[in-house]
Amino acid sequence: MDSDIARLRFVRILSHLVFIAAAAAFAWVFYHPDTDHPLALLLHCGIAVNLWSALQAAFSFTTTCGHKVKPWLRGANLTSMAAIMFFCILAMAAKEHPCRHILFVHIALSLYIIWDILAIKYYKSVSVFLYERYVLLFWADLSLVVVFFAGYIPFLYAAGFKKGATIMTPDTAHMFANIFVFTVLIAELLVYLYAEFLFRLSKSDILLSPEQGYRLWAPNYKSGNAIIHVERRHTLSVLDSLSLDGSILDFGCGDGYYAQSIARPANRIMAIDQCSQMLENARAICSGFNIDFSLGSVDRLRGIPDGSFDGVFAALVIDHLRDGELELFVSECGRILRSGGWIYLSDVNAYYEQSIHPYARFVDAKGYVRKIVVYPHSISSVLGALSRSGFPSIDLTEVPVTEEDLCAWPDLRDEISVGFSLISSYLGVKP
Ligand SMILES: C[S@@+](CC[C@H](N)C(=O)[O-])C[C@H]1O[C@@H](n2cnc3c(N)ncnc32)[C@H](O)[C@@H]1O
């Protein structure tokens, strides 16, 4: 696993050290024990810590979740960064005027807080996971700014707003400090501009699309993961109770595990998947069965005549469909099923996918940990979609995790405990 994670951790630790060293150098360069009031040290430390926290937050945000940022939010962020830089320039230009200088520095810092509030407001509506991170970041930044202001005001009094008092003198050390401030701000700006590139570097944190993800997962999909393990334990037992005669659609068939399990001499199976590599695997393990494999997504269902299937099966697929696609998928299932035909869906717990494990995780053939984007669907939203598509009565099962599951997949123990409903399954019959 986790050579990639170790590499990322190393880069993070290194970046923390570089940022801390740079911030400390900044404080040291600005503080002149011979001429400065002792409170000035607090001031410079405040600026340094703030710079460090801003850089650190920008770096870790970009390498973990920047890809989820909507373009307008990124634009707002870049604008606030540009404004911050602008006020820093003004602060430096006003080095002969302590009051103005301080005012500009304060405006720059306040802009950080505004940016945090913007991000919190945005993430509250889209992701509990990112929202919680941002609330933490906001309180950290706010405390820093308060500490900074608290240190600055006494400093101002101590400086007595003396006419001609200077905060910066144009010696080499201050030149260096100026260059440093510009460099870090420009670096931060670049980090945001090149977020995508940084994601590619820190591979383990990239969220892949289902197309990219399953292509990479296909060579060793067999190695599975905890969710597949729990899901199969449950779904195999449900299959025993289903009538598997006639024609059955296996949507998102993956490597053909279920297509093979439900294939009978007396039935005909159509297996659809959006990933050609997965379908190749499926064809290999299902040779000899009457299975028609087809490459495609929800749109592929449009060409299928009404009432042509006796059963529709989709295991662990709907969390890769956005809300609108899920709605379309379920309504197409309602259309292509004959009256009396069954539909079976299995899905991952929405709370788990939203807050605990917001992606599908696997280890690729090279040993890199990879993550695929998921779109969690609450039980009520799936039941709603099914009901709107002509399945008024659904047999819902929530599958609790057992001690054996946790023994088989020890990583799961860090996230949930015995009894947590990891998988939901929906079984319905078209009236
Ligand atoms: C977790 S795997 C499950 C495979 C199989 N149903 C099983 O349970 O072993 C999800 C599968 O859904 C497929 N998939 C994801 N999004 C899809 C879409 N929009 N249309 C068709 N297949 C999709 C992926 O390619 C992948 O093979």
General description of the model:
- The chain is of the alpha/beta class and 431 residues long.
- It has two domains: 2-202, no CATH class; 210-429, Rossmann fold (3-Layer(aba) Sandwich).
- Helix content is 56%, strand content 15%.
- It contains 15 helices and ten strands.
- A seven-stranded mixed beta sheet has the order 4-3-2-5-6-10-9, sandwiched between helices. A three-stranded mixed beta sheet has the order 1-8-7.
- Helix 10 links the parallel strand 2 (246-251) and strand 3.
- Helix 2 (39-64) runs parallel beside helix 6.
- The chain is elongated.
- The relative contact order is 0.10.
- Residues 163-174 have low confidence and may be disordered.
- The protein binds S-adenosylmethionine (SAM).
- S-adenosylmethionine is lined by residues 210, 214, 252-254, 257-258, 272-275, 278, 297-298, 315-317, 320-321.
- The site of S-adenosylmethionine (SAM) has 19 residues, from helix 8, helix 10 and strand 3.
What's this entry about, in short?
This protein has 431 residues and is of the alpha/beta class. 56% of the residues lie in helices and 15% in strands. S-adenosylmethionine is lined by residues 210, 214, 252-254, 257-258, 272-275, 278, 297-298, 315-317, 320-321.
